[in-house]
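Supplementary Methods. Inverse-folding protocol.

Structures were first reduced to a discrete structure-token string of length 196. This string, shown here, constituted the complete conditioning input.
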């Protein structure tokens, strides 16, 4: 009678182990992407579902790949973070806000200060705006969106074009028209490129 080890070895020789469903690695599912984001960085929101229902704060960061938001003073917990200016790179437990799902928050209506859903409408001049469904008031984009995360450099770098080269005129329409007329025609009646 064959031993248990020899039976296992013969079984494993028949099929590769990964061909069995219980031995395959699990695939991570990506959440479905939200096409229209009505909540932006700097908006004031209220949590309407979950453990933190009723809390409000300003959106610090929008994580579009995972459909989540980081809201100031909501869902705060201990996180191991480096302290600023620390040379030793020692992590210390600090209170920091954690992310919350996009569907659990609503924007605050600027008129009633209550949570509201958002619609998109067009003004008379054609600009698209966000409108509070509760009151019909226009929700302006936050002013923080006009600022850049990293300020744009005003000094010319090694890859920037010098100003005198930018202002230099390199095209003369009269000379170009004469070169065009001097080109020969091929059998189809099209101009042939001149060879230098």
């Amino acid at each position: 009678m064959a031993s248990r080890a020899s039976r296992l070895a013969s079984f494993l020789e028949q099929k590769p182990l990964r061909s069995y469903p219980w031995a395959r690695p699990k695939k991570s599912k990506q959440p479905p992407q939200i096409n229209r984001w009505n909540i932006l960085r700097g908006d004031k929101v209220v949590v309407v579902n979950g453990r933190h229902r009723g809390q409000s704060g300003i959106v610090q960061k929008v994580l579009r790949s995972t459909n989540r938001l980081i809201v100031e003073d909501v869902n705060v917990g201990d996180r191991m973070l480096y302290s600023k200016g620390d040379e030793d790179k020692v992590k210390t437990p600090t209170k920091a806000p954690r992310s919350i799902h996009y569907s659990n928050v609503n924007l605050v209506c600027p008129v009633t200060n209550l949570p509201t859903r958002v619609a998109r409408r067009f003004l008379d001049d054609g600009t698209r705006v966000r409108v509070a469904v509760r009151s019909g008031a226009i929700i302006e984009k936050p002013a923080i969106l006009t600022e850049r995360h990293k300020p744009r450099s005003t000094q010319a770098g090694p890859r920037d074009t010098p100003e005198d080269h930018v202002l230099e005129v390199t095209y003369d329409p009269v000379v170009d028209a004469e070169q065009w007329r001097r080109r020969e025609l091929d059998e189809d009646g099209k101009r042939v490129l001149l060879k230098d």
